[in-house]
Amino acid sequence: CSAKRPAVSASLSVAADSAATKSLERIESLSQVSGVLGCQWGDEGKGKLVDILAQRFDIVARCQGGANAGHTIYNSEGKKFALHLVPSGILNEDTTCVIGNGVVVHLPGLFKEIDGLESNGVNCKGRILVSDRAHLLFDFHQEVDGLRESELAKSFIGTTKRGIGPCYSSKVIRNGIRVGDLRHMDTLPQKLDLLLADAAARFQGFKYTPEMLREEVEAYKRYAERLEPYITDTVHFMNDSISQKKKILVEGGQATMLDIDFGTYPFVTSSSPSAGGICTGLGIAPRVVGDLIGVVKAYTTRVGSGPFPTENLGPGGDLLRLAGQEFGTTTGRPRRCGWLDLVALKFSCQINGFASLNLTKLDVLSDLNEIQLGVAYKKSDGTPVESFPGDLRLLEELQVEYEVLPGWKSDISSVRNYSDLPKAAQQYVERIEELVGVPIHYIGIGPGRDALIYK
Ligand code: GTP
Questions:
Q1: pLDDT classification of 304: cutoffs 50, 70, 90
Q2: Does the beta carbon of 70 lie inside 6 Å of ligand 1?
Q3: 160 pLDDT tier (thresholds 50, 70, 90)
Q4: Neighbours of 326 (CB within 10 A)
């Protein structure tokens, strides 16, 4: 037995070496400007991939959304960090993190996040740049978010009530206040007055007093001073960095099926978490955007209301929720769970032109006897539905056709080479690739930074 030991450890180290070489090759070959975007309804585990890739990128940039994103990442000592607004590259000390013009920024929340990171030994000084064109999200936007949801009553959207929608509404009706406006404090009271009076006129439940305005202005004077070193013309910074051949990774929040245009409207977010949002939210040209990686969970989850064709309301869904710990990072809400939906995934691949996919949480399926894949939609009269429909009623009424694949019934969390995965797990991965026509280059088999197979 002892004679065999060196051979075993030698083969293990060869396996580890080949996994490491593969991972380096994969990451090094990504284009100068690459991006990680969600393919489903969010919470796919984008944060982990961004954190891993960030080690090889100079800049990590957020282009849309706000603190409604809830990335969970772990540092090399296994410490857990829940990030909401700060890009996931922050744990890599050589990375600069950009909060782009397309993001909406709640300053008290941002400072709380920065304080939390710094008290855990993460140096944020000079490493976070906030666009002067980004819109400010005020506390009243959050209050209004709740009032709007109550107004909608039964047809509520199920937002995170973080004020994201109301802040984007202010942006679009053009009375929003931008980060750069904090450099002109003399005009802030008047701008805020307009904004608050507008909300008071719209929502009966929103009480606006002169005292409230005074307090808000005082608070923002203090925030403005603290924010000054972070305020940057990030459009110039991004384009300058591109000319200097810096490597840039764009980190998407939420996901394609929640896109304001392509998602299940109105049960969507208020920004564009798909490829288009990269250009509008950072001020960079489409031709510089290279490889986009789509992150897709090995099954499907959704938070809040809205159609979810492959939802499993029975014990199968409960099983996925428990095994995958599907409870929101931001709100703690239980997520709706179901099988992987390849019609939605194909649609997402089409819109974003993904170069490759990261299949996450494959380990969560390890205890199942069989796994289902939603492969096609058909109407109640049997007519096939060719693409993911925009018609919500059709989405609610259609039937999903499933393919049943065998489970692998074994723990895969310590596997690091694709060839060491059980055959049934490989079959599941390859069937998805075959049906969507995009290669899966990364497979998540646990929450940790190292729990990733490079295929
Ligand atoms: P949003 O931007 O809100 O959509 O978040 P996200 O896509 O970044 O998802 P999040 O980081 O919240 O990830 C969801 C959870 O899955 C976290 O707790 C991760 O640690 C965990 N996770 C990520 N990848 C894997 C994996 O491959 N296996 C397991 N078991 N957990 C994973």
A1: confident
A2: yes
A3: low
A4: 23
| Closest ligand 1 atom to Cα of 295 | 7
| Separation between Cα atoms, residue 417 and residue 16, nearest integer Å | 8
Query: Which residue bears the tokens 């309301």?
Result: 313
| CB < 8 Å & 24+ apart, contacts of 126-129 | 126/229, 127/90, 127/93, 127/95, 127/96, 127/97, 128/86, 128/87, 128/90, 128/96, 128/97, 128/99, 128/230, 129/96, 129/97, 129/98, 129/99, 129/230, 129/232, 129/234, 129/237
List beta partners, residue 136: 105
Summarize pLDDT for 398-425 with one digit per residue, the tens. Answer: 999 999 999 999 999 999 999 999 999 9
CA atoms of 273 and 251, how far apart (whole Å): 10
Ligand 1 atom closest to the Cα of residue 73 is 20
CA of 319: how far to CAs of 24, 182, 188, 326, 340, in Å? 35, 49, 51, 10, 14
Q: Where are the alpha helices (DSSP H) in 244-341?
A: 276-282, 315-323
Q: Say if pTM beats, i.e. exceeds, 0.80.
A: yes
Pairing status of strand 71-74 against strand 59-62: unpaired
- CA–CA separation, 419 and 335 (whole Å): 32
Our mutation pick for probing the ligand 1 site, out of 37, 43, 164, 257, counting the most ligand atoms within 8 A of Cβ, is 43
Binding site membership of 88 for ligand 1 (Cβ less than 6 Å):
no
Tokens coding 89? 């590259």
CA of 42 to the centre of ligand 1 (A): 9
Answer whether 48 contacts ligand 1 (Cβ < 6 A).
yes
Judged on CB neighbours under 10 Å (0-12, 13-18, 19+), 418 is middle
d(CA 212, CA 78): 43
Annotated active-site positions, please? 43, 71
pLDDT tens for each residue of 355-408: 999 999 999 999 999 999 999 999 999 999 999 999 999 999 999 999 999 999
CB atoms within 10 A of CB 127: 22
pLDDT (0 to 100) of residue 3? 34
Of 52, 83, 53, nearest to 69 (Cα)?
A: 83
Q: Please name the residue that has the structure tokens 């975007």.
A: 37
Kindly indicate the confidence band of residue 71, based on its pLDDT and cuts at 50, 70 and 90. Answer: confident
Peptide bond into 266 cis (omega under 30): yes
- Ligand 1 site, residue 43, Cβ cutoff 6 A: yes
